[in-house]
Every structure is written in structure tokens, then in C-alpha cells.
Amino acid sequence: MKSLQDSVIVLPGVGPKRLEHLNNLGIYTIEDLLTYFPFRYNDFQVRSIENIADQEKVVLKGQAITEAVVSHYGYRKNRLNFKMLQDHAVINVTFFNQHYLQKQVVQGEDIAVFGKWDDKRKSLTGIKILSSGNQEDEFSPIYHVNKHIRQRTLVDLIGKGLDEYQELIEEWLPESLIQKYHFLGRKEAVKEMHFPQDMAMNEEARRRIIFDEFFEFQMRMQELRYQEKILSQGLEILYDVEQLKAFIAALPFELTNAQKQVTNDICRDLRSPLHMHRLLQGDVGSGKTVVAAIILFAAVSAGYQGALMVPTEILAEQHFISLVKLFETFDVKIALLTGSTKAKERREILADLASHQLDIIIGTHALIQEGVNFHKLGLVITDEQHRFGVNQRKLLREKGDNPDVLFMTATPIPRTLAITAYGEMDVSIIDELPAGRIPIVTRWVRPKQLETVLEWSKKELQKGHQIYVICPLIEESEALDLKNAEETYALLDHFFAPDYQVGLLHGRMKANEKETIMENFKNKSLDILVSTTVIEVGVDVPNATIMLIMDADRFGLAQLHQLRGRVGRGSKASYCVLVADPKNDTGVERMKIMTETNDGFVLSQKDLEMRGPGEFFGVRQSGIPQFLVGDIVADFNMLELARQEAVAIWQEEQWQQQPENHGLSEYLERHQGQSEFD
Ligand code: ADP
Ligand code: MG
């Protein structure tokens, strides 16, 4: 009996060699072949010149009203010119170095040209002459192929596959969803993707297939979430309410409403026997560290240990110092463990952790190494969590008996990414800054204005304030990087001598050297700190009021925003100055956006749009799945719909039992483990 799971070798024209080549594309079964969708379409639809953007690539069709004239110039260069009439407009067409096309242009006859439109000159720079009668050329699918399998071969095989097997393509969506969104049927959509009748129908097919992709993913995310929360036995962390109230009352400030709200959310999770798996987002300076301290305190009051894991040593030290201060008058034992903790101290810390002499540990990756054992780990917090891979996150969790987990991030994650990369988590957002903050003023200047800026910055220094100066990482060359920072340091040292002290901090320094420099900046023996991006996250020196960023166009928006968040942390007016000579439009746009908004969510959305999801998170480890047809940025409406529908279905715990969901549950089961999302 025929089945979609048949190997593609059953198709005529597929032998062992070709099978291997198809396998290399990930195509094993007929189903793989039929769902090997084009990633884009060549759009050779004929256009009219009224509404074409400058430099857009289009196909224009008209009557050739002159012959093609070829002229030679330079060394073996030639140019072919003719005029074409479209409606009442005369269009100049030019081909470069394709004089052999001359014969194809016949005066008085219709011709279709694919080329790049110059709106000012009303002229087309030709790329290719299309044989006007050829329908196939107009709108054709483009597949990812390799050098052994050509586009044509693939289209051919898909055609054969459809002929033989299309009746077996089953509908997997519940009828109600198809009705609700007026979707094409699955079978029709699959066919239309490969052999589009026209653009409108193809768009309908894409809409359906994109929904399918997103919906399958979201259904799996919801399943994960269900397993995380409902099925895995969590801890009931029954904290002492009175002690917790006393701790909050002793804080040097009143919590913002947003802080209170998220603290409540998290405390509810702690108390609940279900497992906590929550993401806490808050812009730089919104006060996440305090929230972390409160819930760590809660866990400790219930007799548990807590761990706080951060990506850099400087940040770990910073948090350690803040927490020690916050816990000063309370009976909480806390330690710091990083890569540079001395062997003897490390041994003691590990022993104290294992015997529960220690309540809270703060550290870097050192926390997930072999030999770090807890007595009763109840709560794990990771800060700036997208810097940790999924596996590292898991390792830390496995150190306890399924402890509650909170992920904190100061890079606001655009919603489309949050629901893909972190779709299985609960999300809390601190969307309010502590009262009394004066918005940071951001200015963009060109490098030649640097001296003016430095002169101006003396005003702040005279008030006793401090300045950060950041130099960018120059890709692939730590040496250049250092030189860059060193040169800036020398320049500033010279400029501000002898009145003000300048220090230099960079990634190549030993941990204790860094510590000394940071310490000197904090205690104000240094007025100006020149640094590479090592200070990017978390550093807290409220007396610093200027953030000066050199070559600012080399940074992404999210990173610039992080850096800017290092100032404006007290009640003093603060400034961020971007020094940059952007080489391209996106660079200019980035600088402008920075001066226009202080809202981290707005910036991160822009950043995502400008750089794409991979770049946004920096690395592939981000956990964002690759969709074949759907684009999480461009198609985010669909992504959101798919999520809502998946959530709605999972709200009914017995959804699999309902007749209308049979196709759905069978499909998901059959594709379990095959999907790249697992
Ligand atoms: P984040 O970690 O979110 O960047 P922090 O927790 O470091 O922010 O807080 C930034 C600064 O604001 C710190 O100096 C902190 O003491 C202070 N702060 C936090 N919450 C409040 C509040 N509710 N009112 C006043 N100041 C606060
Ligand atoms: Mg719990």
C-alpha cells in the first residue's frame, strides 16, 4: 500500500545515487519531498512604471520602438541601448556588456525585460530579456538545492510525487480553525506552493503553510510548558511571610508597582507545588537585582539554598556586593564563586555549600562545574540568560531536585522572539523605572567634534561626576581592539591631565587588575574610565553621568542601550554621547533611533528588524527554530495567532480525546522527534 512515508526511491528517475543527493537535502520520504517548500519565488510579473520604487528589480513589457544600438567604450566594454514604449511612456533600456542580445530586440515588436529601475532617469538597466510568451518564467518557485540536484530536477520530482501521492495528504488542522481563518485545505496549499496558479492563490497557500509551521511549533512549546509545569514535580517553597515583609520594609526604597507585581507573581510560583519556569524581563535600571534578592531571601527563609548565575566576573562581583549590603542585617550566608576564586577558598565554599553552611551562592559558569554540590537547592536565578546556552541552563538546574528557575534579562526581547525562543516559559515584565529618574539625554556627534564634547564634559567632572568612555570590540582582532582602547586612553589622559585621573580597563587584563581598576573607579580615585565592552552588563556606579561611546556605529542597538543604561542610575541628569561616522544608511539610522528613544522594547524591536533574529541573540544557541517558509519578524501576526490557538487548545487538558482534534494529535505524534524543534 502506498504511504507518504515511502522512500523517494519509488519515484521514476530516483536511483541510489540520486537518493543520496536528495538525502543530503533532508529529503527521505515522499512526505519530505512534498513539504520541501520553496524559500522564495522569482517574481517576473510584468509591472507598470507608475508605482515602482527607485532601484527596484522588475519586469517591464512594451513595444521596442527603436533597434538596439551597441556602442563600445573603454577596454572591451560595450553598451546596448534601445527605447521601449509602455502605454504612453518611453523607457530607455540599457544593457552593459551583453551586446549579443542585439538580435533579440526587434523594432515594432513586444519585448519583456527584467532589470533595475532608475526612477529619476525613467530608465531600466537590463539584466535579462524574457521570452515574453513563456508563462513559466513569470512566477516560479526557488528551492534550496545542491550541486547535484538542480531546480528543474526537483520541480520534476515534486510533480511526479504529487501525481502519485497527493490523495494521501491529510488535513491535520481541526475544521474549526480552517473555518475561522478561511484557510486553504492542506492538500491544496501544498500543491499551490510548488505549482502556483497565480500570485493571489500562492499568497493564500503561503498563509496556510506558514500557519502550519508556526502552529506545530507552538503546539510543541505548549506541550513542553505543560510538562514543565504540570507533570514535573516541583518544590513547595513555603517562605516565611513575616520575615519577607520585614526584609522588604528594610530596603532603602519603596518598590515600584511593577516590582511589587512581579515579586508577587514569583512568590506565588515559589509557594506552588508546580515547577517555576519564568522569564523576568526589565529594562536596564528597572531594578531586577532587588527582586532577585527578595526571592532569594524568600527561598532561604523556607530553608532552601539559592544560586544566582551571571555571565561575567565583574557582574558577579557587583551582584555579590549589592546582595551582601542588602542582607547585612539579616542572617543570610552568601558567597561568591568565579573562575578566579583561589583554590583554597573554593574548597571551603564547596564544602560549605554541600553542608548548607551557605545559603546563597553567586557566580559565573564556575557554578555549573563538576564538584559544585548543594545540600538543598531550591531556587536558581540566571541573569542575562540568553548568554547562557540551553544546556548550561539545564546543568545548573540538575544540581538540585528540580529547583524553581527564574531567568532574568535586561535586553528586552521583542515579543516575536520571546514567544519563539522562550515560548514554554511564563513571562513577567518590569515596565516601569524607579521614580525620580531623569531621562538620559542622548546625542550623536561626528569624530571631529570629539574635542568639543570633551571640553563640555569638564562641566560634569567639575561637579564631581564621573565618565565612562567605551571603545568597541574590533572583530577578530583582540590586538587591534586593545590598541584602539589604549590610544583613546592616551588621548584622554593627555587631554585631562593633570586635573582628572583616567583609567583603562580591557578584556586582556587579569581578573585582579580589573578588580583594582573597577574599585578605583567606584571609590572615585579615577574620574574617567576608558574601557572595552567588558563593562557592558550590570555595572553600577550611580555617580557616573556621562557615557561616551567611540565608534558607536559598530555596536548593535541592544548593546548601545545596555551601555547607555550604565548612567542615569541615580537622581542626577545624565548623558550618552555617541561618537560615530557611520559608513552606511543603517548605521545612520541606528544613531538616530538611539537619540530618539530610551525605551528598550522599542529599540530591541528595531534591532530585530534591522539585524534579524540570529544576529539579535548573537549566536545560534539562542534556541530560535529555523522555519522554512515563515519569517518570525515579517509574519509575526501569524506567529501570534498560532500561539493563541495553541494555548487555547492546551487549556483543555483532554484535548486529544476530542474527535475534531484527532488529525492534530495523530500528526504531532507521527512527527515527534522528526521535527527540528525537539
Ligand atoms: P537592573 O538590574 O534592572 O539593571 P538594578 O537592580 O541594578 O537594575 O537597579 C538599578 C538601581 O536602581 C540600583 O542602584 C538600585 O539600588 C536602584 N533601585 C532599584 N529599585 C528601586 C526602587 N524601587 N526605587 C529606587 N531605586 C531603586
Ligand atoms: Mg514551586
UniProtKB/TrEMBL annotation:
GO terms for biological process: DNA recombination; DNA repair. One of its GO terms (molecular function) is ATP binding. Residues 269-430 form the Helicase ATP-binding domain. Keywords: ATP-binding, DNA damage, DNA recombination, DNA repair, DNA-binding, Helicase, Hydrolase, Isomerase, Nucleotide-binding. It is an enzyme of class 5 (isomerase). Its EC number is 5.6.2.4. Coiled coil: none annotated. Residues 449-609 form the Helicase C-terminal domain. It catalyses: Couples ATP hydrolysis with the unwinding of duplex DNA by translocating in the 3'-5' direction; ATP + H2O = ADP + phosphate + H(+). InterPro entries: ATP-dep_DNA_helicase_RecG, DEAD/DEAH_box_helicase_dom, Helicase_ATP-bd, Helicase_C-like, NA-bd_OB-fold, P-loop_NTPase, RecG/Mfd, RecG_dom3_C. It comes from the Bacteria. Plays a critical role in recombination and DNA repair. Helps process Holliday junction intermediates to mature products by catalyzing branch migration. Has replication fork regression activity, unwinds stalled or blocked replication forks to make a HJ that can be resolved. Has a DNA unwinding activity characteristic of a DNA helicase with 3'-5' polarity. Belongs to the helicase family. RecG subfamily. This is ATP-dependent DNA helicase RecG. It comes from Vagococcus elongatus.
